[in-house]
Amino acid sequence: MDMANADERGTTERVLTLLGLLQQRRIWTGPELAGRLGVTPRTVRRDVGRLRTLGYPVHASQGAGGGYQLGPGQDLPPLLLDDEEAIATAVALLAGAGGAVAGAGDAALRALTKLDRVLPTRLRHEVRALAGSVESFGGGRTPVDPEVLMTLARACRDEVEAGFDYPSGSEVRRRRVEPYRLVASDRRWYLLAYDLDRDDWRNFRVDRMTDVSARSWCFRPRPSPDAAAYVQESVASRVYPHQARFLVHAPADTVRAQIPASAAVVRPRGSERCEVLSGAGSLDFTLMHVLLLGHDFEVLDPPELGSRCRALAKKLLSAGATIPPPDTKKS
């Protein structure tokens, strides 16, 4: 009896692992799933049958490009949400992904993409209608259309190309990309993607996109940069005509608490110092920004920033020259 219970627990854990794999990628071949689970393809077929019995719509296709795919559900699988609970959950996640819930946007979007896998078609219209009546005030993040986020999230998840219109200078151009990750900053949503026309990685502000669509054309993922680090460095530095690096004599956590993540990249350099990378329209602005932090610091790059430090020091000394120093002698 104990052996039977152990076997049942092992099967249950394996089926749950299989469900997690099907949620991670658009399509898997039988041998791929068998290799991940450490079982035979025949066992995979049996476990797929168990998922179908539980209400999960697992589709199988033959031939080149075929395999197992988790499709939209006709009935909710045992989670076990009824229709009203599913609608309420989806609307709350849509609001959170759109920025109404501070700090919850990326987590809400991940949860919403999982729910989207099995949300019956009959409920999606109700979710969209209710989402249109949800608004928020306050919060620092630029609002975006939750449906746009969902379209991009699905494209990232399913590894299919996406397209959208995007401003470039005075023009709006159509961009074709291989979407990789959605990244939420303290102010905005960004998409990190491989731009097919420019043959390079780019990040795009989601609130600037229009006419967003996902194609059915699948792509093989490329070696990619760290999404959050790439977007943060781009937003804080690369988009500006001038970049500067400073060595600040204060712990990284202290400096991060003083500078928004979208304004500078802060990297620890030991326990008591950190490197600050920032960009601006002028070198003087980056210099003043670091000066006002109130910590001792050194200029690392660019070399010409050293001369700006000396010029600024002269101006400050000249500005205070007419004011006599306070009398420190006791009367």
From TrEMBL:
Origin superkingdom: Bacteria
Signal sequence region: none
Gene Ontology MF annotations: DNA binding; DNA-binding transcription factor activity
Keywords: DNA-binding, Transcription, Transcription regulation
Annotated HTH deoR-type domain residues: 11-66
Protein name: YafY family transcriptional regulator
Organism: Nonomuraea cypriaca
